[in-house]
Amino acid sequence: MLSRYAKPASRVASAPVPRLGGPTFAWKDRALRLLWTVTWAALAAWTPAPFHPFRRRLLVLFGADIHPTAIVRGSARIWWPGNLRMGAHASLGPGAICYNVAPVTIEDFAIVSQRAHLCSAGHDIDDPEFPLTVRPIRISRDAWVAAEAFVGPGVTVGRGAVLGARGVTFRDLDVWTVYAGNPARALRRRAYSSSG
Q: What is the 3-state secondary structure (H, E, C) of 21-75?
């Protein structure tokens, strides 16, 4: 189920040519995603905040690996649950977009705030066929991706790092460092350090 698109390789082999109107994904994959999208919309997207356990169970049913204390808001948009891993007390905020064609990991105590965008896929702009490319994203323990920030394919947000509101990064962020801007630039070290 979509696993062939979840490789850390930079290019998806034998994908159709989207530039010529062909689908990027096989029919079976599109059908599974449609089932997921309809299920989330019907059963979870409208649910109030206290329904975290129900939303977690629904995500796990579709293949997600989510710790029992993780929080996923109903208005979050997850492309495919089977490519999502969330640790203890990790949080995916309201309206967050998790475009996880490749695996996305949100480690313990990491926060992805409202309307932030985790984008694990793109296209090879130097190839005339414009093929899909995928690279995993890791939001490390104690990190914070603030409101409306964008994290691009292949990025690791280091432990305790902060990507400020509306910041954009296509590069790894150093541990315990605060970043802001587009492109994101290091502003200072973060004073807080976790006891764990």
A: CCCCCCHHHHHHHHHHHHHHHHHCCCCCHHHHHHHHHHHHHCCCEECCCCEECCC
Torsion of CA 126, 130, 132, 133, to 10 degrees: 0
Q: What is the pTM of this model?
A: 0.87
Quote the CA–CA distance of 175 and 148 in Å, as a whole number.
21
Q: Is residue 120 a part of any domain in this protein?
A: yes
The per-residue pLDDT for range 135-151, each reduced to its tens digit, is: 999 999 999 999 999 99
- 57-93 residue pLDDT tens: 999 999 999 999 999 999 999 999 999 999 999 999 9
Instruction: Identify whether 4 is part of a domain.
Output: no
CATH of the domain at 150: 2.160.10.10
Cβ atoms within 10 Å of 3's Cβ, excluding its own: 12
CB 121 within 8 A of CB 101: yes
